[in-house]
């Protein structure tokens, strides 16, 4: 399926709201064969460094089901610790989602976004951001409906996508096969107002020029606009 | 929904085969609001105690997604260890599924059954057994198709269900609400030929008589027969 | 020695009260070559979920000395975690002993039962229950004597024994050799009033019929009555 | 001191080669008050995924001394696990340094770069890259001198620097105080030939435009050229 | 009881050989109220640093049962790691016992000495050495009897005792009460030929002079001679 | 260099005060090629057992940088636990430094001494004590200057050195090469007033007589006097 896509096209995207009945917010996001379950949990407590400040926090955990991948991966719980890759990814997702929350409006409470990868075919961290935003948005609406906050603490939309250079050519939204072949792999998160929140690019095979960076960001912008449109449709249902 | 059920009725059961595209076998089992993803992974290696014996093994891991429950539960990977409850449950599931495998026919390889609870509303361990069997069965068929085994190592069907005593009355297939109110909680696994493989019952509130034990086993048998019928339908598709 | 026993006979049982001078309650239980040190520790605190409820808790830890077995076993402390088998066993022991305690009478305090296996020759979990009850009973008497509780929180006696099917025949109180040969292995805990508290049976080799289950429970009852008689003798000294 | 610097100036940089007598390569890098000890260790083994491929690997570990910071930080060894921040940083350093190594020329061996922060005043991850390169370069020369490789596996120079936006203005090489005040914080790694290897920027306070991204990369380039000049001077001594 | 002892007298000592039927060597040592179970396990493997050297190793593990003490101590397995005190003690015991083994005669195999403190009333580490020697000696005889070694690898007897300064006066073999009051606490291990193997003394309350050190060693020697006499009697039975 | 030293001479000693700008006290100690960074951290809290007693505590952590040694050593944080050797050493350092602190004068606060070995060439634990004392002394002066204590809680100087027997001859201050060849290895800590605080000696190869012990302590005393002179010079600057 990926082969028929044009280089500047997203894979088919599907976001299912309210996927997990127990959570204050949730979404199943599918980008091609990549599927991530995102849930938002509201808790009336904050980490120690925020106690008695009246402001809140958003934190994130990222994990993969053992058979989300071609070869089974060992559970972190069996290894007794969270792997470096999960740590890096969940830190990025957290930073990005925090960028669109007004913590004073949120008040002294936490929202935990859990991103559990059901199926991994490239782009799990960006799908987690795009889907995690929907779960976060549901949780914010829940807070408003419950009268727990006066104003919705959400300040903007946010979504993320990967771009890369494969055989010297730009490609949007890399699946696993493209990702494995990419010379450069980049993940970009952008708000609804078109501003950057996270730019993270690595030359896996071949260093790249400043011009290529500019082009990649432009291509990502195109994809992100479509993702945010999708988020809006989903959330307006 | 549970309230309309009769005491001797199962909750609505749905088993979806091939739910996870990467695994050698998989099933999503839904028993009422309880949903468990079961996958089977074939690996060409065995634990040390079986090396060079020519016989194989089936092992099981059980885990819950953080928001499978009403209140978010901490991940075992964050706690740095698998909790006692998960340990107990995955040991039981493993024992039960091993009862219907001929390890000589399986040959010197392992099948790992992963049971990841997406939504928990009581009966996750018995649902894991019933759904895990479908994943295991798919993996066995895969081994036959691939020519890796001469004969299918599966020796029988197997399924499990919970029964309990609530307000002095027998109830089949307890959901969370019934489970919390139960005086006795029992999990029973039985083969397609109607023989017992695991009987595990605990008086949570009130010790029970030998007669009650006999009645509970009979009630479980009724439910298990329906579950095995469901397995057969699912696997014949 | 085991070979001379009749199939419906217990191994020689010996319970030594007050075996550990520092504990609020303690017993050394010997069932044949199986020897378990049980201690009860009273602490004036409860787990978080019981704080300010005025009710208490009984919890259990189970461990084996490295050379309690034929081959030395690695310490859990060296492995950095408690193994699955220990977890499963200590959860069962805890559930069973809690069945004979009135937690309101106990008040907001905890009793921890430590079961340390000195020598393992089959039946360590059931010996832990039978001996753990004696330690628990001593600790309850201590609470009464100290004036910490008004009434003894103990509501009944409780003991446990294993039964099994070996070569198609029922056997009571399996030692290691019998256990290794057993087709079915079952552990049953029963109160002084003859009611069941825990029934846990597994077909290791061969599934079993409902009739066999009934017979096994009857045989266990016979053994448990003798064990409770022994507990009474020991505690009356 | 930082206040007197111009916005486009690096802090004073000092790199001391051969700082640790036991390592195959080592450097102490000082950027203002930030001090990092970098060592390179050559080992004649590779991770499992590279065995029998004839190609090698470069891996990195990053850690902070407890009093490298204003408030003492707990050791990871006492916490029993590596923190998320260390994990994220050491993964980035590793990716960057691997970009200038020809793994076929390196042959089937590993080089481990240890970055131990003695004093932290902002920019420890970029200082680790710049100093780590010097240690890596020394280790490569060692391999050549020892006749272990035919050709030096190093393909280019590489250094990294942070840039940021503070009060809407661009700043190069943020110290702790500037970093804490920054709206955007970006780390950029570039080769001697002026190509990008890693771009990682986060809007801590305020999302930023594509133009700002372009300006930040240009400013970083200016600083990195000076750092690579410094590396060349140091390595030519 | 301790109060009636003279300052230069040992507490009553009792050593029971063959206390644990499964081990290749074992002893229960009682020094007053201190009781330690010592077992020796022979394994036909050595740590990596000794592979293919033809020489063996003796290693030691030390642990306390939860209610060996007045207040229950948390298990290392629950804490997920071995505490610093246990680590220090087991390293000392290992060093001392290795001093009387000829590792070439032992051949490429290991003996593990497990010291499990059943009851702690001061002097558990020295009791572990004295009792551990008996277990080690039994294991060496076992190796001779089995024809696994040509000559007994034991080169001498070894025992240990504590001495201290309490209220400015020397005391031999401190129990818990004396130990808590001691200004200086010293543990000394000596061979059958009267030579020192380990001297470890700490001024808990008050630094001490070189003369006091000399006196303490002499007093320890007196006690150790009696302990070695006891070992000989025990082993000749 | 070590070879030219006489048997009763220390290696060249250098102590640099205030080596780490963030700590309340710090020193870099160099004894020949052994280099240890010592820092003292003052915290206004105490371990649980001292709460509300008005008295304080001194605790110590010891660690080695991965390339402080000839072969790289794995980090404790990667192994997930502190090794036995580090545990033993940091316990000894803590005991010794506590011997020269008046905890009532210190008040209810803690001082943590971190000893991080930069380069290891024998004698790291004794260097940690000698250098740790300088860091501790600086921290005490800091407390006085800040008006946090009325009187300096330091009661005396303290330093430590190793002595050994190599080829039947006494040697002071063993470097790695001598240590590896030593028949006996001893670490001694002594106060400014010439009293012993810790004596810890082990016969690595050959048990030793009481006379040898006396001689070793005398030789250590000679070295320690010079070290304390060095401490005084350093602290008076």
Sequence-ordered SSE layout with sheet pairings:
Six copies of one chain form a homohexamer.
Chain A (H helix, E strand, L loop, with lengths): L12 E5 L7 E7 L2 E10 L13 E8 L11 H4 L4 H15 L4 H4 L3 E10 L4 H22 L12 E9 L2 E4 L3 H6 L2 E8 L4 E8 L6 H27 L1
Parallel strand pairs in A: 4-5
Antiparallel strand pairs in A: 1-2, 2-3, 3-5, 6-7, 6-8, 8-9
Helix pairs in contact in A: 2-4, 4-6
Main β-sheet, spatial strand arrangement of chain A: 1-2-3-5-4
The total of helices of chain A stands at 6
Q: What is the N-to-C order of secondary-structure elements of chain A (H for helix, E for strand)?
A: EEEEHHHEHEEHEEH
Average pLDDT figure of chain A: 94
Point out poorly predicted stretches of chain A.
Answer: none
Give a count of the beta strands of chain A, DSSP E runs of length 2 or more: 9
Structural class of chain A: alpha+beta
Shape of chain A: globular
Oligomer: homohexamer
Q: Percent of residues of chain A in helical segments?
A: 25-40%
- Main beta sheet of chain A: strand number and arrangement? 5 strands, mixed
What is the rounded distance between the termini of chain A?
Answer: 28 Å
User: Biggest interface, which chains?
Assistant: A-D, 35 and 37 residues
**Gyration radius of chain A, rounded:** 18 Å
Strand composition percent of chain A: 25-35%
């Amino acid at each position: 399926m990926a082969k028929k896509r044009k280089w500047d096209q997203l894979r088919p995207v599907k976001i299912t709201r309210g996927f997990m009945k127990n959570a204050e917010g949730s979404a199943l996001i599918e980008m091609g064969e990549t599927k991530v379950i995102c849930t938002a949990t509201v808790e009336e407590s904050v980490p120690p460094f925020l106690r008695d400040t009246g402001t809140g926090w958003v934190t994130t955990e990222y994990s993969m089901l053992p058979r989300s991948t071609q070869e089974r991966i060992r559970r972190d719980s069996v290894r007794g610790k969270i792997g470096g890759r999960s740590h890096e990814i969940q830190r990025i997702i957290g930073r990005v989602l925090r960028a669109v929350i007004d913590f004073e409006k949120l008040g002294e409470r936490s929202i935990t976004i859990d991103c559990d990868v059901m199926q991994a075919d490239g782009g799990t961290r960006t799908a987690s951001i795009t889907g995690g935003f929907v779960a976060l948005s549901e949780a914010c609406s829940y807070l408003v409906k419950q009268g727990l906050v006066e104003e919705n603490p959400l300040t903007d939309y946010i979504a993320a996508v990967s771009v890369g250079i494969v055989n010297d050519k730009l490609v949007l939204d890399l699946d696993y096969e493209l990702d494995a072949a990419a010379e450069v792999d980049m993940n970009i998160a952008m708000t609804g107002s078109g501003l950057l929140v996270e730019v993270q690019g690595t030359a896996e095979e071949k260093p790249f020029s400043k011009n290529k960076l500019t082009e990649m960001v432009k291509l990502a912008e195109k994809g992100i606009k479509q993702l945010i449109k999708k988020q809006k449709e989903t959330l307006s249902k």
